[in-house]
Automatic annotation (TrEMBL):
Domain Acyl-CoA oxidase/dehydrogenase middle: 138-220
Record domain Acyl-CoA dehydrogenase/oxidase C-terminal: where: 249-370
Keyword Membrane: no
SUPFAM superfamilies: Acyl-CoA dehydrogenase C-terminal domain-like, Acyl-CoA dehydrogenase NM domain-like
Name recorded for this polypeptide: Alkylation response protein AidB-like acyl-CoA dehydrogenase
Keyword line: FAD, Flavoprotein, Oxidoreductase
Length: 391
């Protein structure tokens, strides 16, 4: 049987789903209140740190569950999203960091391997909650090496999900060193670092339980051993697309999950009313057809990402494009059709869905967040995909 977004492909993926399912009733019960308050349910994440969920994507030899398949992570997020997509988005942060840190621990430079292994063990023990921070606001986040040899990080990152409870941040930054070209780097910055401020400014339209706040870095000192090196700023390499894919592709499960949750609400409302009008029947048929197409696209993209993530034998640039391009095809479709599906479900249900207390109103706001997630937003995706077509 072909894999789908309801079925893990590994024993480790099945174990993760078993651990998550007891959380679903509580998430559903608290979702509306957390949405109104824009509150990350920290008490649930505290439980997840104790029962092993936060170490799901940490290798077994580092103490984690050992989920390696991106497909299985997407399945878990898909199920969580139908209870509370904001929590799924926050948990994605930890899962994706486990996957990328595992690569660093196995294939990085010696310093990177030591750092990644240390972080992974802390994640497995429930001691480390790790966020990635990519988006700049107002200024480029820069890591500068001073005359004293100390690196200092300055800038601001926005929409950092799960940040209110994070213990570590992996930052996308520009590295400036005397006499050297500007490079990209990913410093790992503990929360207690002087000059680091986690702001309390989250008031998003949707995904309100994700805790997506801003982080300020004011000349934060960063030891050299905490800096993961990347490529030159002015010479981007397609090989880096592989890591970007691993960091983000599993989020597609969240937005398909949102569309499926909306579909189920629309079907339930239609059944309750009795024999539907032909227009409603047409919408329901179109909704299910689009959902089928999204599931097919996403599972194929995940399969390609999983296949190529283990294969380091070929050209690194080809590998990067081979992972990113199916991801962007699927994300382009999901960003468009998941939103359209939820919108059609509002039409099927009618005016009741246009009230703040109706669960469809939350789905309607949450599903639009997919278009802002990198890589890529709509404009950047058009540039990337058209470049592949014209290559």
């Amino acid at each position: 049987m072909s894999p789908d977004l309801r079925t893990p492909v590994s024993a480790e993926g099945r174990r993760l789903l078993e651990l998550l399912r007891p959380y679903l009733p509580v998430l559903k019960e608290e979702a509306a209140a957390n949405d109104r308050a824009a509150a990350l349910p920290a008490h649930l994440f505290a439980r997840m740190r104790k029962d092993g969920v936060m170490g799901a994507t940490v290798p077994g030899d580092h103490g984690g569950i050992g989920v390696t398949r991106m497909h299985d992570v997407a399945v878990a997020l898909h199920e969580l999203a139908q209870a509370d997509a904001g929590v799924a988005l926050a948990l994605h942060m930890q899962f994706s960091r486990g996957l990328t840190m595992t690569y660093e621990a196995r294939h990085g430079a010696p310093n990177a391997r030591r750092l990644a292994s240390d972080i992974l063990r802390q994640m497995a023990a429930g001691e480390a909650v790790v966020c990635g921070a990519v988006k700049d606001t107002r200024q480029v986040t820069a890591l500068t090496r001073g005359d004293d040899g100390v690196y200092r990080l300055t800038g601001r990152k926005t929409l950092v999900s799960m940040a209110p409870i994070a213990t570590h941040f992996v930052i996308s930054a520009q590295l400036h060193e005397p006499g050297q070209p500007v490079r990209l780097a990913a410093p790992v910055v503990p929360r207690h670092t002087p000059g680091l401020t986690v702001e309390d400014n989250w008031d998003g339209m949707g995904m309100r339980s994700s805790g997506s706040v801003d982080i300020l870095f004011d000349a934060c000192p960063v030891p050299e051993e905490n800096v993961l090196p990347r490529g030159l700023l002015d010479e981007p390499s397609d090989a880096a697309l592989a890591g970007q894919t691993v960091s983000s592709i599993t989020m597609l499960g969240i937005y398909v999950g949102l569309a499926e949750a909306a579909r189920d609400l629309a079907v339930a409302a239609t059944r309750k009313r009795g024999e539907p009008q032909s227009g409603v029947r047409t919408l329901l048929a179109e909704i299910d057809a689009r959902l089928y197409a999204l599931r097919c696209a996403v599972t194929h993209a995940l399969a390609e990402a999983d296949r190529l993530s283990d294969d380091l034998s070929g050209d690194p640039d080809e590998r990067g494009r081979g992972m990113m391009t199916p991801f962007q095809y699927a994300k382009f479709l999901v960003n468009k059709h998941a939103v359209g599906i939820v919108d059609d479900c509002v039409t099927v249900v009618g005016g009741a869905a246009y009230t703040g207390k109706h669960p469809l109103s939350k789905l309607y706001r949450d599903v639009r967040a997919g278009g802002f997630m990198h890589p890529y937003n709509h404009a950047d995706a058009v540039d990337y995909l058209s470049a592949q077509a014209l290559r």
